[in-house]
Amino acid sequence: MSLRLSTVILPVDRWNEGGRAKWQRAEGLGFHAAYTYDHLSWRTFRDGPWFSALPTLTAAATATDRLRLGTLVTSPNFRHPVTLAKELISLDDVSGGRVTLGIGAGGNGFDATALGQDAWTPKERAARFGEFVPLLDRLLTEGAVTQRGTFYSAEEARNIPGCVQRPRLPFAVAATGPRGLKLAARYGQAWVTTGDPKLYEEGTPEQSVTAIAGQIEKLGKACAEIGRDVAELDKVLLTGFTPDRNQPLESVGAFVDFAGRHRDLGFTEIVIHWPIPDSDFAADQAVFENIATEAVAQLG
What we know:
Layout (H helix, E strand, L loop, with lengths): L3 E5 L10 H10 L4 E4 L16 H11 L4 E7 L6 H15 L3 E5 L18 H20 L2 E4 L6 E5 L12 E4 L3 H10 L2 E4 L11 H21 L8 E5 L13 H12 L5 E5 L11 H15 L1
Parallel strand pairs: 1-2, 1-10, 2-3, 3-4, 4-7, 7-8, 8-9, 9-10
Antiparallel strand pairs: 5-6
């Protein structure tokens, strides 16, 4: 399978003041997909504009024709499977079946306490994620669901007519720990990683490649345990969080070198951030667009 190139557009622009234009430009540049972050606020962007993911994706669906759309990633931090399923079915319908749900366990960011709750421990996050994903899978594939869980329940939750994509829209499961990798193996159509966060500050690109190779090996074991071929899962790298940081966006050649190393590990999709000036995602827009239009062909 040839390597696909996608982008992630942070929801920081008013729709009529640059937001729509970015999504349309992403389609025009030939990206496979454009994703956005599903947070209530995020890191250094907390005190500036930040719009909701699913309405943004709905608007993007009406402004584009071919581009796949999705979240990187949705988490249980402020979502419930019953209401999320209804919104996803609606979004999949509006988009004509172009939606991928990136989904992860969440973390300790602002989302973790925005609803007034105490932040969950890593153990509780994993437990909630382990209940969230299977219930969401049922809600998106069955017409009516009743289920009682420790954290999440549904009572005659109706989701007719279901997704345009059958049996449901694809899940891209972000995970590196054993419980999350088992969820990716069982429920994922794709697996997502940002690399090893412990290497971000002081690691090297070479150490990062080794660590990611180890993650892929563990994913393969999780698949083997349930009799699934790991090759069935797309493997997605969300860039910007490895020791390379933004260096791959400095030139087409730099990106081709970076992407080639990760393609050789087995990745089928690489996601780069749409440039945002004066931020961690600052990059030259012209170089970014050259990468979008030239890099994949150079990878062969």
